[in-house]
Specification:
By secondary structure, the protein is α+β, with helices and mostly antiparallel strands. Helices cover about 35% and strands about 10% of the residues. A four-stranded antiparallel β-sheet has the order 1-4-2-3. The chain is elongated.
Length: about 250
């Protein structure tokens, strides 16, 4: 398609000078200040975490009972898709809201001695531990759980986990803590408090009263009430933080 030539200047109307840029009034500055925000920094820790989160959420959710073998460390989100009435508000085949978010890093990372081996299966092992925990409890079915996971550079794993927990407030991270706990060992079991999650979903062998006789300060009924309040938006951010701090003191 040919483009018609521009007409000669003489055939054009006389040009009109545009109006000068208007002066910025007090109202203009007031509005600008109301909408002022920090310049976007892609290297900000929160934004880095969100980029990892976005990549994780693009992954297909897999059945927890048959996670594909994978090497490396990373971050993951666990979803509930079953009929348990307590979790009905988040139960979904589309895996929209995680029930738990976690990370898996190489042993020794907190001491600065971690060095991931090429054939290390840190992330897969962690998800397998969760599978075993759910298999042991009496009121949950591992077939009702799905997981999204992402192998990631260790430096970004903790950031992504923290961002996702703040975003979603997964119930097993914030209200019924202890799902991700390990067996404290034979010497510590008798004096350790049973985790709130194990009061709510009993069955793990190491948290049985015969092995861990001291109950959690948070009863199963109290956890149920808190979970229902979380799902109905009856808990403020301050109350959630108080519950998290209270449960941290038990560990």
């Amino acid at each position: 398609m040919s483009v018609p030539p521009n007409p000669p200047y003489g055939a054009l109307p006389a040009p009109v000078k545009p109006s000068p840029k208007p002066r910025k009034t007090k109202a203009w500055h007031k509005t600008a200040n109301e909408f002022r925000s920090a310049p976007y920094n892609p290297l900000d820790l929160v934004n880095l975490g969100r980029s990892v989160e976005a990549e994780l959420l693009n992954r297909e959710a897999e059945p927890l009972e048959s996670v594909t073998p994978v090497y490396g460390a990373g971050v993951y989100a666990l979803y509930y898709c079953g009929p348990h009435s307590l979790y009905a508000p988040i139960s979904s085949a589309e895996c929209r809201i995680p029930i738990y978010v976690g990370q898996a890093r190489p042993a020794g990372v907190r001491k600065g001695t971690a060095e991931e081996k090429p054939d290390a299966s840190t992330l897969w092992d962690r998800m397998y531990e969760h599978r075993q925990s759910i298999l042991q409890v009496h009121d949950l079915d591992v077939a009702d759980f799905r997981v999204r996971y992402l192998v990631a550079i260790e430096a970004f794993v903790s950031i992504a986990e923290r961002v996702m927990i703040r975003h979603y407030r997964p119930v097993w991270n914030s209200i019924a803590d202890g799902f991700g706990n390990h067996d404290p060992g034979a010497n510590r079991r008798p004096t350790s408090l049973r985790p709130p999650w194990d009061e709510l979903h009993p069955g793990r062998w190491w948290s049985h009263p015969d092995n861990m006789p001291t109950p959690s300060k948070t009863s199963a009924d109290q956890s149920r009430e808190r979970i229902r309040a979380l799902f109905t938006d009856e808990l403020s951010e301050e109350q959630i933080l108080e519950i998290e701090a209270e449960q941290d003191e038990e560990e």
